[in-house]
Amino acid sequence: MNPASLHTLLNEHNIKVLLTDFFDTIVHRIVHPNYTQRLWAKILIREFGLKGSIDSLYFTRRESSLHLKKRLGLHEVEIPYEALKLEVFNRLVNNLIIEPDQKDQFLKFFELADLKSEQAVQFLNTEVVQLLQEARSEGLKIYIVSDFYGPKPLFKKLLKHHGIQDLFDGVYSSSSSQASKFQGTIYDQILNDLNISPGQIVMIGDNKRCDFQKAKDKGLHASLLPHQKFLLKNKLKSVGNDKRDYDKVIDKTYKACRRKEAPPYSEYIILFQVFIERLYIISRRFNIKNLFFASREGLYLKKLFDLYQEQSFLAPDDRIGTHYLRMSRQAAFQITYEPLHKEEFSYMRKRFRALSIEKFIQNFAFDKEIEANILFELKATKPKEAVDGFFDSDDFSQLMNLPLFQQAYEQNRKNQKKAFLAYLSSFDVDVDSEGINIVDVGWGGTMQEAIFKVFEEKIPVTGYYLGLRENYNIQEMTKRYGLLFSIHPYEVYSDHILTANTQLYEQLLSANHGSILGYDETAENFTLENYKQEEKELFENHLMAHQEFMLNRFKILLKDLDLICYDYSIVQNKITDLALRTGLFQNKKKLNFISILNRGFIQNVGANKVGMVYNPAKAGDLKTLIKEFLIQPEAKFRYIAKLKSLLYGKKRIYAYLLPMRLVYWYFLFNRFVREKILKRRFFLKYNYFR
Fold first, then answer.
1. Beta partners for 322?
2. Helix runs in 426-461, H state only
3. Residue 118 backbone dihedrals phi, psi, to 5 degrees
4. What are 519's strand-pairing partners?
5. For the packed helices 568-584 and 660-672, what is the interaxial angle rounded to 10 degrees?
6. Both 201 and 156 in a single domain?
7. Fewest CB within 10 angstroms: 219, 447, 533, 637, which?
């Protein structure tokens, strides 16, 4: 039907009212109608942090609908929306997927998720909209009549989303009316409501039974729109594969990050996106109100999280609060030191066997005058010289017995704790009732433990990390989660691959400020900072551009993933292969970048060494390394991933001769053999098949 034919119909039959279908008439979907409800399931899982797959929630809804259809004796599109929401909720409660006290929020978010999923996939048919505008100009009243699972309020929000709400005088939805076009019963209701002769009404739509034949059966005029091509497209849209769709999006990002103009290692934004999404989901699952992103890596992670949340949340008043917490390992020690006679300095004892007196003293937030006076009173002849076995040396013993050091240490210890508590209270978060939720890059939870200790182990402090690679004393009030990789409950294949090059994670997440040395109530941001020139130049000359590029790719990636359904295993397998390829295939550009990073990587605890440290001795002797690699190559990946850059810094020709493509194919072959062939033939799988 075109405007001319509509005008003819109106004049010949004295038409006063035009009824129009909605789906595949006024709007079309870019996906199959059933896929829209899979997107609904994806959104609800994300917003509630529900355990279970997209398909399990989707099928729960489908089965609920079929059950209500039989119980109520209605066609599926006539089922009351509120009854459907309640049935789905009861099934989830019964299967321990959601808590009973979440009912009101679930029922609210059920509809918001439907709205968001429908908005994401719909687009207007401008020709039909123009036709309706012509009818409006002729003085006709126009009503939408749709066999739709949603109620009138949901329909009105969709019309407002498309900017066509003023075009219609009303909406008839089958779920609100408990009558449908399919049965023809909704036309009886319309005739009764409008109190008009059927001959003065015309119905337009794309469905021969519902929009044409059933309307004519009731005495209405009807016109069937030629939309067969859209019906064919809908059938084709039912064919698809989640893994293929997800891989396509990730591969697009990976290729963009490997172009000549892209900064090296910018493909790490894919890993950061996975972390942010998992952080959001687990935050919703645990009903977290506030997250503290620990410096310095937390600054960029917070920016990514805020962007993700802006796109994802359903209700503006339900946002998770995000806060940037300036902290470091050195600052964490400052606030948790025991009185000197009890303090063992266990962290530094374990990691820094060789240390100078000067470097040790610099680990405290003393001012320069106090540092100088301590060294003067010690009469240290070589304060800058590292002493092997420092913590068992005479130099250390003399320092511990020096009254000036004792006094400065005790005063600093008390001031640091007081200033830190004042700093934390400035965020206006009720930590006593909420606890503290820390977000950080990883890897063991030093800062988390420090905060727990500051609060005398009375409030829970939970950690959410890119990865966990260190064992810790597991307690109820200091739980921690590695969202990309973790040694808990035990390491699997992907954990070994993703844990390689953790220093690169740290560098790519650098911030535009210095390391936190300690706290001071009178200082800006309550913090004492030291921004070394090497770090500043590295960030401004290299990493800032990296982060800007990755941020833009992050936005594109979020948009591309918006209409894709995927589960944990699809994502984990993909990012594992990504990390494997990134670790093995390092071109000249990447190797040079590693060298640049190496000059700006500074440890903020202990000896403050400059440079990323790779110790080949940790890999063991060559014979054992080769044997273990052949059996379980992923366990040695962190050494292999560093081998090329290590050789590049010494003898570049050796780095280029490494057969990394062959190594990559061996990884794939080994995993296939173990998982697809050997695994099913052995009972005791732990040693080689986990």
1. 291
2. 431-434, 446-454
3. -65, -40
4. 527
5. 150
6. yes
7. 533
- Round the CA-based radius of gyration of the chain to a whole number and report it: 32
Instruction: Tell me the Ramachandran region of residue 139: left when phi exceeds 0, alpha when psi lies from -120 to 50, beta otherwise.
Output: left
For residue 230, the domain's CATH number is: 3.40.50.1000
> Could you tell me the residue range of the domain that residue 66 belongs to?
33-120
> CA–CA separation, 624 vs 216, rounded Å?
83
Same domain, 138 and 100: no
In the chain, how many domains are there? 2
pLDDT in tens, 71-85: 999 999 999 999 999
For the segment 127-173, what is each residue's pLDDT rounded down to a tens digit?
999 999 988 988 899 999 999 999 999 999 999 999 999 999 999 99
Q: How many CB atoms lie within 10 A of CB 145?
A: 27
In a shared domain, residues 52 and 155: no
Reading the block at residue 689, the tokens are 């098949």
Tokens of residue 294, six digits: 């620990």
Q: Which residues contact 669 (CB under 8 A, 6 or more apart)?
A: none
Judged by DSSP in three states, 204 sits in strand
Distance between CA atoms of residues 384 and 380, nearest Å: 9
Reported as type and span, the H/E element at residue 28 is strand 27-29
As given in the structure block, the two tokens for residue 633 are: 């190559």
| pLDDT tens, residue by residue, 243-268 | 999 999 999 999 999 999 999 999 99
Choose the final residue of a domain: 120, 148, 180. 120
Structure tokens belonging to residue 429 = 């978060």
